[in-house]
Amino acid sequence: QVELVASGGGLVQAGGSLRLSCAASGGTFSSYQMAWFRQAPEKEREFVASISKLGSRAYYADSVEGRFTISRDNAKNTLYLQMNNLNSEDTAVYSCAADLAPVYRGSYSTSSFYYTLWGQGTQVTVSS
User: Which of 72, 95, 97, 68 is CA-nearest to residue 83?
Assistant: First the structure.
Protein backbone atom coordinates (compact mmCIF):
# COMPACT_ATOMS: atom_id res chain seq x y z
CA GLN A 1 0.00 0.00 0.00
CA VAL A 2 1.35 3.38 -1.06
CA GLU A 3 0.41 6.62 0.66
CA LEU A 4 0.97 10.04 -0.90
CA VAL A 5 1.07 13.21 1.18
CA ALA A 6 1.30 16.61 -0.49
CA SER A 7 2.67 19.68 1.25
CA GLY A 8 4.18 23.08 0.56
CA GLY A 9 1.11 25.06 -0.37
CA GLY A 10 0.43 28.50 0.98
CA LEU A 11 -0.45 32.09 0.23
CA VAL A 12 1.75 34.02 -2.19
CA GLN A 13 1.48 37.21 -4.19
CA ALA A 14 1.24 37.21 -7.96
CA GLY A 15 4.67 36.77 -9.48
CA GLY A 16 5.92 34.75 -6.55
CA SER A 17 7.06 31.15 -6.32
CA LEU A 18 6.28 28.02 -4.36
CA ARG A 19 7.62 24.48 -4.33
CA LEU A 20 5.21 21.67 -3.59
CA SER A 21 6.30 18.27 -2.33
CA CYS A 22 4.60 14.90 -2.43
CA ALA A 23 6.06 12.31 -0.08
CA ALA A 24 5.42 8.65 -0.83
CA SER A 25 5.53 5.85 1.70
CA GLY A 26 5.02 2.15 1.15
CA GLY A 27 5.60 0.33 -2.12
CA THR A 28 8.33 1.25 -4.58
CA PHE A 29 8.16 4.90 -5.54
CA SER A 30 10.28 4.43 -8.66
CA SER A 31 7.67 2.03 -10.05
CA TYR A 32 5.20 4.86 -10.54
CA GLN A 33 4.96 7.58 -13.11
CA MET A 34 3.63 10.59 -11.26
CA ALA A 35 1.54 13.66 -11.92
CA TRP A 36 0.17 16.81 -10.37
CA PHE A 37 -3.44 17.85 -10.78
CA ARG A 38 -5.26 20.88 -9.45
CA GLN A 39 -8.84 21.84 -8.81
CA ALA A 40 -10.31 25.23 -8.06
CA PRO A 41 -13.71 25.61 -6.37
CA GLU A 42 -16.58 24.99 -8.76
CA LYS A 43 -14.18 23.93 -11.52
CA GLU A 44 -13.17 20.57 -12.93
CA ARG A 45 -9.97 18.84 -11.92
CA GLU A 46 -7.19 19.98 -14.24
CA PHE A 47 -3.97 18.25 -15.27
CA VAL A 48 -0.82 20.19 -14.43
CA ALA A 49 2.24 18.05 -15.18
CA SER A 50 3.49 14.47 -15.28
CA ILE A 51 6.89 12.81 -15.01
CA SER A 52 8.31 9.42 -15.95
CA LYS A 53 9.52 6.86 -13.42
CA LEU A 54 13.15 7.94 -13.45
CA GLY A 55 12.42 11.61 -14.02
CA SER A 56 13.92 11.78 -17.50
CA ARG A 57 10.72 12.85 -19.26
CA ALA A 58 7.95 15.26 -18.37
CA TYR A 59 4.81 16.73 -19.89
CA TYR A 60 3.08 19.99 -18.99
CA ALA A 61 -0.28 21.59 -19.48
CA ASP A 62 -0.12 24.59 -21.79
CA SER A 63 -1.25 26.85 -18.96
CA VAL A 64 1.87 26.12 -16.89
CA GLU A 65 4.49 25.36 -19.56
CA GLY A 66 7.58 27.43 -18.95
CA ARG A 67 6.52 28.43 -15.43
CA PHE A 68 6.27 25.12 -13.58
CA THR A 69 8.84 22.33 -13.31
CA ILE A 70 8.02 18.83 -12.16
CA SER A 71 10.81 16.70 -10.72
CA ARG A 72 11.37 13.73 -8.45
CA ASP A 73 13.99 12.34 -6.11
CA ASN A 74 13.50 8.59 -6.00
CA ALA A 75 16.12 8.20 -3.27
CA LYS A 76 13.91 10.37 -1.06
CA ASN A 77 10.62 8.97 -2.38
CA THR A 78 9.48 12.50 -3.13
CA LEU A 79 7.83 14.27 -6.04
CA TYR A 80 8.17 18.05 -6.48
CA LEU A 81 6.48 20.85 -8.35
CA GLN A 82 8.39 24.11 -8.62
CA MET A 83 5.95 26.90 -9.46
CA ASN A 84 7.28 30.26 -10.65
CA ASN A 85 5.61 33.46 -11.79
CA LEU A 86 2.36 32.48 -10.15
CA ASN A 87 -0.86 34.24 -11.04
CA SER A 88 -4.40 34.19 -9.70
CA GLU A 89 -5.41 31.48 -12.19
CA ASP A 90 -3.06 29.11 -10.36
CA THR A 91 -5.14 29.26 -7.19
CA ALA A 92 -6.36 25.73 -6.51
CA VAL A 93 -5.94 22.63 -4.42
CA TYR A 94 -2.98 20.71 -5.85
CA SER A 95 -2.89 16.92 -5.59
CA CYS A 96 -0.29 14.35 -6.57
CA ALA A 97 -1.20 11.05 -8.20
CA ALA A 98 0.49 7.80 -9.20
CA ASP A 99 0.10 5.64 -12.31
CA LEU A 100 1.57 2.12 -12.38
CA ALA A 101 1.60 1.78 -16.18
CA PRO A 102 4.99 0.39 -17.31
CA VAL A 103 5.47 2.91 -20.13
CA TYR A 104 5.36 6.65 -19.60
CA ARG A 105 2.18 8.03 -21.12
CA GLY A 106 3.61 11.42 -22.10
CA SER A 107 0.97 13.50 -23.82
CA TYR A 108 -1.62 10.88 -22.88
CA SER A 109 -0.94 11.31 -19.16
CA THR A 110 -3.53 14.06 -18.76
CA SER A 111 -6.50 11.74 -18.12
CA SER A 112 -7.17 11.45 -14.41
CA PHE A 113 -8.63 7.94 -14.67
CA TYR A 114 -5.15 6.53 -15.37
CA TYR A 115 -4.08 7.32 -11.83
CA THR A 116 -4.83 4.63 -9.27
CA LEU A 117 -3.50 6.42 -6.19
CA TRP A 118 -4.14 9.98 -5.06
CA GLY A 119 -2.66 11.98 -2.24
CA GLN A 120 -4.15 14.64 -0.04
CA GLY A 121 -4.34 18.07 -1.59
CA THR A 122 -2.42 21.16 -0.59
CA GLN A 123 -3.95 24.61 -1.03
CA VAL A 124 -2.19 27.18 -3.17
CA THR A 125 -3.62 30.69 -3.05
CA VAL A 126 -2.22 33.47 -5.22
CA SER A 127 -3.26 37.00 -4.33
CA SER A 128 -3.34 39.74 -6.94
Answer: 68
